[in-house]
Every structure is written in C-alpha cells, then in structure tokens.
Amino acid sequence: MQVQLRDPKIVMKLSRLGSFHQSKLSFLRSFLNEFKDWKYNRDFFDLNDRGYGVAVYSFSKDKKTYSLVCFANELKDEERSDRVIATKWDAAFALYDGIPSKIDIDRLSQNVPKQEVGRLSYKELTLSRANRSVRAFNYVVECLSKGIQPNTNELSKVGYLYRTTAVYGSGKFGLADRFRIKNRDEINGPFRLEMMLVYLVRQFTFDQVNHKAKMLNLIGEDIL
Which one-letter DSSP state was computed for residue 184? Predict the structure, then answer.
C-alpha cells in the first residue's frame, strides 16, 4: 500500500504545524525511545533549606554516561526576566560528557550560571537556563507542604513551573563541536542532547519542588 504525500505547500504552514499530534519521529519521543533502556540516576543533590544549590543527574549504559549539572540560584524578583538581555536566572544547566568530578563542578559553578558570559569546554555538550513561574511554583510548594495535591485548574492557568529561555549546543560558548560526537549511535537523531537536557531539567524541577515543600513543612513560611 502506498500513500501519496501531501504537498509541502499545504502541510508546512505555521498555522497547521502547531496542531499536529506527536509521532514516533517527534524529538522527545525519539529521544525517549532511544534512551528507554539507559539507567537513570540522581547522583548528587545538595540543596539548602530554601532550595538553592547543586544537583547532578545522569543517563548511563555500556560504560557511557551523560550527566546534567544543575545550579539553582537565589534570585530577587526584580532580577528575574525572560528577555534575551537577562543576566540572571533561577536555574542554569550544563550537560556533561561523562561523570563530572568535584573540580569539574566547581569550574562549572563559575561559568554555567553566567551563560553567554561564561566559558565552557569540550566536555560540556549543551547549556541552558530557566526561570520559574513564581506564582505556580510557590502554589505547588505550599500545597505539597500541607500534604495535598495542587489543583490542575490552577496549574493550567500558567502551564509550567520552570521555563527554559534558551538551549545551546554544537560549539556555542566553548561547548563541544558536533564533529566530536557525531558518530555516537545514541545521539544520531535530531536534538537528542537538547532533549536529554530538558528531560532531566524536568526531573530536577520535581525534585526541587518536593524538597522545598518538605522544608516548608518542617521550618515554616519564611523559606518561600
């Protein structure tokens, strides 16, 4: 059976592309299919009572490891901006090729939160930063601290807890050039490393929310 393809002039319109359902070729689905047999782990989680600090997550298989290094930063309300000219963010991330040492994490802590102003190395594959929705994030923390689940209608008014404002790769700001990693089978698909980063950022978001909820339950409202 042969199915005739539709004319690209009809299909490839922005007004239509946004309504398409995901398929097995979608970036996130193809990433999940490729990495479904990899071992996921939270290797390091060192956040203070207010939820700021460092965390490391990883995917590993057959002696290969990719690690996401996360930096959760304290940010004043007036410093938070989603504009491209922003210089501070609630969290910053780098996907590391392998298992980072303490020296690596210390080096990254001096550069990753700076984003474009910092300098990365060939051991880092992707770079990102994100800002939280203060209203949604604090609402979820308060609900969980009381032992109740947040109302989905309230969450749908915002739609996110953290939102990435950029994801960089392929040699940007000193990151590894594509030629160094292009022959790895697991990342041959489109945007595999970028999808890995945002997928692990999602997990960090859940962990940070739960951590802050626990601390709020134990300590009190001043940690928000």
Answer: -
* pLDDT confidence band for 82 (50 / 70 / 90): confident
Q: Where are the alpha helices (DSSP H) in the chain?
A: 8-11, 14-17, 27-35, 102-109, 134-145, 152-156, 192-219
What is the per-residue pLDDT across 24-37, written as a single tens digit (0 to 9) for each?
A: 778 888 999 999 99
DSSP state of 59: E
Contacts of 104 (CB under 8 A, 6+ apart): 69, 96, 123
Q: What angle do CA 112, 116, 119 make, to 5 degrees?
A: 55
Helical pair 134-145 and 192-219, crossing angle rounded to 10 deg: 50
Contact 70, 91 (CB under 8 A): yes
Dist CA 96 CA 176 (whole Å):
10
Structure confidence at residue 93 (pLDDT): 99
The model's pTM is 0.88
Helix, strand, or coil (residue 157): coil
